[in-house]
Design goal:
Blueprint (H helix, E strand, L loop, with lengths): L1 H8 L6 E5 L1 H4 L3 E5 L1 H8 L6 H17 L6 E3 L13 H12 L6 E8 L3 E8 L8 E4 L12 H15 L5 H6 L8 H19 L1
Parallel strand pairs: 3-4
Antiparallel strand pairs: 1-2, 4-5, 5-6
Helix pairs in contact: 1-3, 4-6, 6-8
Keywords: Hydrolase, Protease
InterPro entries: Papain-like_cys_pep_sf (IPR038765), Peptidase_C48_C (IPR003653)
GO molecular function: cysteine-type peptidase activity
Amino acid sequence: MLCMWGESAFRDGHTINFIMEPEVFGYSRKTFILGSDVRRLASMREVFGNCIAVYQRYLYDQLTAYKMVDMVAFVDPSRIGGKGGGNGTVRAQHIRDRLLTAKPGQIFMLPYNSGAFGMFNAERKKKGRSSVIWKNLAGIPPQPSNKECGYFVMRYMRDIIEDKDLSLFATKWERRGSSQYTQEDIDQLRNEWAKFVVKTYV
C-alpha cells in the first residue's frame, strides 16, 4: 500500500516540501520528501538521513504527548552525516551549537551516518559545557546487513522514548542485550512514518 501511494503521490517528479519546526532540531529548516524516499522505505532498501529526520519529527510529537521534551532532544542527521553534512569541522560545530541549547540532564540522540548508522548520546548537566558526556549506545540489536541500519536506529530511538522511564538508562539502553528486532518491529515504524507523512504533510 505504501509503495502504491508513493507511485501515485510522487508522479512526474512531485515532492512534498515542508518546514521542520525549530523545536525539533533547535533551528528551522526547509526539507522535502522524494518519491525515492517512499519507495526505499516501502521496499526495505537503505534509507538516508532525511527519512530518519522525518521519523524524528514524528517522535517529537510523542515526546510532547508524554511531556518528555525536556528529557530527550534530537540532532539533525542531515547536518552531522558523512553525506551532505560538510567537513568534520562543520559537523562538529553543528553538534556544539545544538548541545548549547541543552537543558540540565537532557539526553540528545544523534543518528550518525558515515556510510552506516551509529547512535550516540550526550548528557549536559547543570555545570555547563565541560560536563557533556558522550556515550556510544551499544544496545542497538544487531542488524542482518548494513542496509537495515537506519531502520534499527529509528526503532531504537522509538523504544527509548516509549519506555518513558530514563532513570535506568545505562542499564537498559547503553549495553548490548539479547533482544532482536523482527520484521514486524520494523514494519511498525514504517507504518508510523507513512501515516505521519500522510496526516501531516499531504
